[in-house]
Structures are given as structure tokens and as C-alpha cells.
Design brief:
Elements (H helix, E strand, L loop, with lengths): L8 H19 L5 E6 L1 H7 L10 E5 L3 H13 L24 E7 L3 E6 L1 H11 L6 H14 L6 H11 L8 H13 L2 H25 L9 H17 L1
Parallel strand pairs: 1-4
Antiparallel strand pairs: 1-2, 3-4
Helix pairs in contact: 1-3, 4-5, 4-6, 5-8
């Protein structure tokens, strides 16, 4: 889901802290719960190149009291019901093996254990999603860039292994994702690629918003990439004149 309230690393932690307290209160006893942050929330938790996200997708392993706790925290902090959700399970980036490759982040109120997804598996998920109008590709470049700066570079081989493990050894990446990861490792200039693709994603999102206004109910999941590519070609033709 998307909210009108952006989440930063600081207020995300504050929300999770409140969730831990509320879950403990709703349960009536210290029953443990686990949450694995996915996507933008995982980026915020582990890296510095993203300032915010409007999406808080997660895997949630807890008693039924967690739903009431999520909603009560949302009401208290001005967030919509379901601000922490598992909607991503409906997308092609989902894998039932994500829990196995998650890594510890923090524990709140001694009951809520929060985990995130390890870097190469997060990249694999972003590649499988491959949305040119979101942050999927710039997030990949950002992760590669930060790991390179820290002296812990991520290899192409480790990403290929992650793809094979999460998606049953036969990942079929979107064409744009395949080209992007090939070009990125060929170049190796992750900072430049991050900045360029971030700007491209911004332009694509702005174009889609205008397109949807001009042609309502036309955009579908299976035609968005083709519409974006057409817009890029037209923009390239104008720039070349």
C-alpha cells in the first residue's frame, strides 16, 4: 500500500517501537512476533541513499492481535489502517523463501523482532519487480554503490545465486531489469548509474501521472513498460533535434 505520509528511517523506527508496545498491550502477555521489512522500508533500515518511502511492505508472523495493534498505532500516529501490510505477496517479487534469507534488525518492547532482507536478495527482489516508475532500479544501484564504498562489494554471482534461490532456479527477469543489471556491472560506476536512473524514474512517474490523467483507466500492469519505453523514445527524438 501507499500512504500520504512518507516514512523516514527515524519515524519508521518510532512506528515500530509503538507497534511493539501496542502489540504487547493487546496480547496481554509477552508473546513474540516477527516482522520482516521488504522493499523501501528495508532500504531505509539499512542504507543512507533513500530519504523516505511511501510503502511499508512486510512479512508478518504474529498472533491475530497484531492487526489490531497496527490499526491502533495507525490511528494514534495519523496513519491509515494497514500501514504495515503484506500486499507485496501479490506481486512477482514475492518468494516463500524470504524468511530464510532475512537478517536481524532490531527488537522493540522485547516482543517484536524486526528483520530485513539481506542485500543480494533485496537486489534480486528489485530486479524481479523491475518497475521503471518506482525506485526498483535506482535502489539496486544505490545498494551496490554503498556496499562498494564500505569495502564490501556485491558480486554479480551472488545476485544470480539469490535470484535462483528465491525464484526456484528459473528466474525470468523483465527485459529492462536484465539489461539494467548487465549494463550496471559492465560499467561499474554505481554512483553515476544511481543518479541517472533516479532521474529517469522520476521522469517516468511524472509521465505516467499525466498519461493517466489524459487517458484514464488505460494504464495496466502489462502495458506500463511499453508506454514508458514509447515516451522515452519520443523524448530522445525531441532531444536529438
Amino acid at each position: 500500500m501507499s500512504t500520504n505520509t512518507p516514512f523516514t528511517r527515524e519515524n519508521l523506527d518510532a512506528c515500530l517501537k509503538e507497534l511493539g508496545k501496542e502489540f504487547r498491550k493487546q496480547s496481554g502477555k509477552p508473546i513474540p512476533a516477527e516482522v520482516v521489512l521488504i522493499g523501501g522500508a528495508a532500504i531505509l533500515a539499512n542504507y543512507g541513499f533513500r530519504d523516505m518511502t511511501y510503502d511499508v511492505d512486510a512479512m508478518i508472523l504474529a498472533s491475530s492481535a497484531i492487526k489490531d495493534a497496527v490499526n491502533r498505532v495507525g490511528d494514534r500516529l495519523g496513519l491509515p489502517n494497514g500501514w504495515l501490510n503484506m500486499d507485496f505477496k501479490k506481486t512477482k517479487s514475492y518468494s516463500d523463501r524470504l524468511m530464510e534469507v532475512s537478517i536481524y534488525y532490531k527488537t522493540f518492547s522485547n516482543v517484536l523482532t524486526v528483520r530485513t532482507v539481506a542485500a543480494e536478495y533485496l537486489i534480486a527482489m528489485k530486479l524481479m519487480s523491475g518497475r521503471q516508475y518506482k525506485h526498483d532500479l535506482s535502489d539496486i544501484a544505490g545498494i551496490l554503490w554503498e556496499h562498494e564504498k564500505s569495502g564490501k562489494p556485491i558480486s554479480r554471482e551472488s545476485i544470480d545465486r539469490a535470484l535462483g534461490y528465491l525464484y526456484k532456479d528459473s528466474p525470468e527477469l523483465p527485459a529492462a531489469s536484465q539489461k539494467f543489471i548487465d549494463d550496471t556491472f559492465t560499467s561499474g560506476d554505481y554512483e553515476r548509474i544511481y543518479r541517472e536512473i533516479k532521474e529517469s524514474e522520476k521522469q517516468s512517474k511524472e509521465f505516467l501521472l499525466k498519461f493517466d490523467k489524459d487517458y484514464p483507466n488505460t494504464l495496466k500492469e502489462d502495458n506500463i513498460d511499453a508506454i514508458i519505453e514509447t515516451a522515452k523514445r519520443k523524448r530522445g527524438d525531441r532531444d536529438a533535434r
